[in-house]
Amino acid sequence: MKSFDAIFIGAGQAGPFLAARMAAKGMKVALIERKFLGGTCVNAGCMPTKTLVASARAAHVARHGAEYGVQISGEIAIDMKTVRARAEAVTMSSRNGLANWFSGLKTMTVIYGHARFTAPKEITVNGEMLTAPKIFLNVGARPVIPDMPGLADIDYLTSTGIIHLDSLPKHLAVIGGSYIGLEFAQMYRRFGADVTVIERGPKLASREDEDISDAIADIMRSEGIKIHTDVKDIRFAKRADGATVTIDSETVAASHVLVATGRVPNTDDLGLDAAGVVTDKRGFITVDDRLATNVEGIWALGDCNGHGAFTHTSYNDFEIAAANMLDGEDRKLSSRILAYALYIDPPLGRVGMTEKQARASGRKIMVSTRPMNRVGRANERGETKGFMKVVADAETKEILGAAILGIEGDEAIHGFIDAMNAGTTYPVLKWSVPIHPTVSELIPTLLGDLKSI
Ligand SMILES: Cc1cc2nc3c(=O)[nH]c(=O)nc-3n(C[C@H](O)[C@H](O)[C@H](O)COP(=O)(O)OP(=O)(O)OC[C@H]3O[C@@H](n4cnc5c(N)ncnc54)[C@H](O)[C@@H]3O)c2cc1C
């Protein structure tokens, strides 16, 4: 049995950073990864997909060059091998960067293999037994495969597989109209594929307010993406060159099918029973406000604890754990204000409550919206789709939440993220003096238009 001060299972966006901090203090740590350093974000998530989104945007801008007075002769052609190679280069640079960093940490041992508990403080990996008083789980999540008739008989893709395609699908059917599905749908449409999005719920991105979901659908449709919502029955049948997808009474002849119906935590093959670690019904590891599981000395960080499904939430779990364990602070999960982006183009930047959540909280609320065609920067750039929205508490004057669906929405939303984290009320933020001409410059104006509803 090999002993360590701490064992980390999964090299995602939380564990490795805490392991590195502990190693820098001279603690003996083991980092166990069954596949690639950097986990989903680096290898199959944010980094490759946002690189692909950038290629898709370049194609879109090139096609619209003439509107800006830029003439391009001939067809805009997409070289999918180069598109894929670009994404792989970004992934490899990050993955290799992590490997180099860790190889320089004298007390860190990186072990490649699948780790499993055999007892509360015992782990087996590659036939070896390891033990430590502190164990951190950062095992992430994987695509869920729904039980749909005929799906098992066809060759479908998930978000992990589709990023390796180096040829263009003729017709991509995307099952699931939420964040991951929508990003791939628009990207592949811009690369030149026919795209159909099939969603069981009544709206795309159904966690958002209806006005946001509707505007997202308009953006997708304006680029020629077909959208089916409220679909009751989805079935699949194999064809010589793809699959027939039957949606209620319609059929789609798809060359490729992407299943993007959500993610499940990688907790079913971790031997959690042997450790006595409790999960909820969906397999997410139950943690307290400081990320501790029910078993003393075991913590769960990142997507596997169900308190976030983003790189920045996973990284924040690292920050909370590090602050509490190494810096003598008392940081809590419940202090986090959730923020995220949907990387369609234009993107959606979001923070805090939606309008429907704010209403459901029983507060007296104020709301203000402004279309992007009344934002100077958007007009100058010729990209005026979308709108911005803020929700505030009429009594306490707190900013409860905001959404910017529009050009630079993922950046401009940080005006709200920063203000909300600093506890700034809307009457104070209204007096900030922003830079012209930016999207953010409309934040004070938006706040000035808040009305009780
Ligand atoms: C297509 C896609 C796009 C995304 N885009 C964004 C985005 O734009 N912005 C954003 O913030 N988030 C995005 N995400 C989500 C983001 O990638 C994750 O939330 C993020 O990677 C955090 O994950 P994590 O740290 O919890 O674990 P992960 O990064 O998933 O890492 C977990 C690691 O644990 C390893 N592992 C699992 N079980 C074991 C075991 N038993 N033994 C050893 N190793 C094990 C896995 O191999 C994996 O490497 C995207 C995700 C996808 C799929």
Given the helix and strand composition, which structural class is it? alpha/beta
CATH architecture grouping of the largest domain:
3-Layer(bba) Sandwich
Q: How many separate structural domains?
A: 3
Tell me the number of helical segments per DSSP (H or I, 4 or more residues long).
15
E-strand count: 24
Q: Please state the average pLDDT score.
A: 98
SS strand fraction: 15-25%
Sheet with the most strands: spatial strand order? 19-20-23-22-21-24
First CA to last CA: what distance?
64 Å
Radius of gyration: 23 Å
Helix share of residues?
A: 25-40%
CATH topology of the largest domain: FAD/NAD(P)-binding domain
Tell me the name of the CATH homologous superfamily of the largest domain. Answer: FAD/NAD(P)-binding domain
Q: Mind summarizing the main beta sheet?
A: 6 strands, antiparallel
Low-confidence stretches: none
Shape: globular
Structure write-up:
With 453 residues, this protein is α/β, with parallel strands linked by helices. The protein has 3 domains: 214 residues, FAD/NAD(P)-binding domain, CATH 3.50.50.60; 111 residues, FAD/NAD(P)-binding domain, CATH 3.50.50.60; 113 residues, FAD/NAD-linked reductase, C-terminal dimerisation domain (Enolase-like, domain 1). It is 31% helix and 24% strand. It has 15 helices and 24 strands. A 6-stranded antiparallel β-sheet has the order 19-20-23-22-21-24, sandwiched between helices. Strands 4-3-2-8-18 form a 5-stranded parallel β-sheet, with helices on one face. Helix 1 packs parallel to helix 9 and helix 3 runs antiparallel to helix 4. The longest helix is centred in the first third of the chain and has 24 residues. The chain is globular, with a radius of gyration of 23 Å. The protein starts with a strand and ends with a strand. The model has no long low-confidence stretch (mean pLDDT 98). The structure holds flavin-adenine dinucleotide.
